[in-house]
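Please decode residue identities from the backbone states below.
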């Protein structure tokens, strides 16, 4: 994945997940526009698809798409913003092969 696409996804994923004052549609639209300006031919479609999945993912702690850190058998801790972003980036990195086909 090009570095530009990763940077756009990092910024937009953070906006979608943690910045309630920015509407999700605005964050995605701005990211797609950045991908059109600075990314490759397939970048806008790829960025839109990844951010759409992130935006539509369930937000509850029980969700399998959201990382949960286990500290003890009886206690669950909500991940930090950094851990959540790291999980998103890991998911993006593991999907690189699917995109570059």
């Amino acid at each position: 994945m090009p570095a530009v696409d990763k940077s756009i996804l990092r910024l937009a994923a953070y906006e979608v997940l943690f910045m309630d004052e920015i509407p999700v549609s605005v964050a995605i639209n701005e990211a797609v526009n950045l991908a059109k300006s600075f990314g490759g031919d397939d970048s806008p479609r790829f960025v839109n698809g990844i951010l759409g999945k992130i935006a539509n993912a369930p937000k509850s702690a029980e969700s399998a798409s959201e990382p949960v850190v286990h500290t003890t058998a009886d206690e669950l801790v909500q991940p930090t913003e950094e851990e959540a972003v790291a999980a998103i980036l890991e998911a993006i990195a593991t999907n690189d092969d699917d995109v570059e086909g």
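Observation: The CA atoms of residues 16 and 55 lie 7 Å apart.
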